[in-house]
Specification:
With 77 residues, this protein is mainly alpha-helical. It has 2 domains: 40 residues, no CATH class; 28 residues. The protein is 62% helix and 0% strand. It is flat and about 50 Å long. The mean pLDDT is 83.
C-alpha cells in the first residue's frame, strides 16, 4: 500500500471538491450564475451540433450496430 499515492489522490479530490463548492456558491438563489463573482476557472462544456445529414448518417450507423448486436445475441441462444 503506497501511502504517498493515496495522499496525492486525496489532495486532488479535495481540489475538485473545493472547485465544485466554489461554483455552487457562485450561483444566485434562483440557480442562475451571478455576474459579480468569478467562476473559479471551471470550464463549461461546448456541445457540437449535427447537421440533418450527420444525424441521418449517425442514425443509420446505430441501427446497423444494434442489428449486429441483436443477431449476435440471437446466435448465442
Amino acid at each position: 500500500m503506497n501511502i504517498a499515492a493515496i495522499v496525492s489522490e486525496l489532495k486532488a479530490e479535495r481540489i475538485r471538491i473545493d472547485r465544485a463548492i466554489a461554483s455552487l456558491e457562485d450561483l444566485s438563489p434562483n440557480g442562475a450564475p451571478s455576474g459579480t463573482q468569478s467562476r473559479g476557472g471551471i470550464r463549461t462544456r461546448k456541445r457540437g451540433h449535427l447537421s440533418a445529414a450527420g444525424r441521418k448518417r449517425l442514425s443509420e450507423m446505430m441501427k446497423k450496430r444494434w442489428a449486429e448486436r441483436r443477431k449476435k445475441a440471437a446466435g448465442k441462444k
